[in-house]
Amino acid sequence: MILPDDDFDEDPGYAGDDEDEIDTGDLEAMIWNLLVLINPGDEESALRQFSLWRDGMAEAQGDESQALPILKDAIDWSAGFYVDWNDTESLVDSIEELAARWNLDIDWGGDPSDDDFLDATDVPALMAVAYDRLREYGYTLWNWNTDGDAYAGWIALSRDDEGMQQLCSALGIEIRPASDAF
């Protein structure tokens, strides 16, 4: 297991622990800080995803209502997950892919390659298991409200939980720990 040594980026979009200090007028800075949080210790990936997000925003002609869907696409399977409400197999695969970035293995409480195991559970239950296992290593699995029939989220260092909540609030992204799925 590798725990990155870097903390939450003190970028202009996030001035400190007080929510009032977040510059909510600088969407790019807030997105950058979110990408730093969900790519701990991997600024190269954060930069690549930020570039994809900026390109998507340029195509959307700066329409801020498209910021989250574009972010979802920029981080999918590299720093985030987005799965249908009943797609347990994709959830397991995506979480394992994300956790592998830090050489973490998740004990799912059964064989995730066994169709019977996957059929006997659901996405929220698996997210709760992954949340518990990742907390043991100092990480938090988050899920955000998709307002639809899907589950989405990312992994960040547990020490950044408060910063994650404040930043997502400023971005208008409703998040919860994955142990409490939407």
TrEMBL record:
Region Disordered: list its residue ranges: 1-22
Which keywords, in A-to-Z order, does the entry hold?
FAD, Flavoprotein
Q: Which InterPro entries match?
A: DUF6630, FAD-linked_Oxase-like_C
DUF6630 domain: residues covered: 31-177
Q: Which Pfam families match?
A: DUF6630
In its UniProt record, a GO molecular function of this protein is: flavin adenine dinucleotide binding
Query: What is the protein name given in its UniProt record?
Result: DUF6630 domain-containing protein
